DNA sequence: TAAGTTGGGAGAACCC
DNA sequence: GGGGTTCTCCCAACTT
């Protein structure tokens, strides 16, 4: 899935969310559609994986990854939820991600 | 107080 | 090479 070169951060995050093996790092919030939350202890693992995916020289951290996440708030793709380590995909972003995800299966 | 989390600005990398 | 977009990095403030 998303096996291209120009993988964007929210593509990668969606992959993590759809992977049951990554549920201990990041998972959907069952009570809110499109809302997901990072594990307080494993959030850096997700970031490290993202850094590897991009082939970064320096190790990625949650701090830096959340900075990129904040950029999505400006473009309206992902919004920050007023809870710790919690973000929300916009309806539109979620729809295109799901379409892309199903199409790549 | 310390640790963890969030936010801003500037610069680098990539694509047209 | 220029312009626009996305991502990375460092620093400071806020919350628990």
Q: Biggest sheet, open or closed, and with what strands and sense?
A: 4 strands, antiparallel
Per CATH, the class reads Mainly Alpha
| Uncertain stretches of 5 or more adjacent residues | none
> How far is it from the N-terminal to the C-terminal residue, by CA?
7 Å
CATH architecture: Orthogonal Bundle
Q: What is the CATH topology?
A: Arc Repressor Mutant, subunit A
In the sheet with the most strands, the strands line up as 1-2-4-3
The average pLDDT score comes to 89
Seen as an oligomer or otherwise, the chain set is single chain
Element-level helix/strand string: HEEHHEEH
- Cα-atom radius of gyration: 13 Å
The counted number of beta strands is 4
Percent helix among the residues? 40-55%
The CATH superfamily label reads Winged helix-like DNA-binding domain superfamily/Winged helix DNA-binding domain
Percentage beta strand: 5-15%
């Amino acid at each position: 899935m998303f096996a291209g070169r120009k993988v964007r951060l929210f593509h990668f995050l969606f992959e993590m969310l759809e992977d049951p093996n990554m549920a201990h790092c990041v998972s959907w919030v069952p009570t809110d559609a499109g809302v997901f939350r990072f594990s307080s202890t494993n959030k850096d693992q997700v970031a490290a994986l993202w850094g590897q995916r991009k082939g970064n020289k320096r190790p990625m951290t949650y701090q830096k990854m959340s900075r990129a996440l904040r950029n999505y708030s400006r473009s309206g793709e992902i919004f920050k939820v007023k809870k710790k380590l919690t973000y929300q995909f916009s309806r539109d972003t979620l729809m295109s991600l799901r379409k892309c995800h199903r199409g790549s299966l």
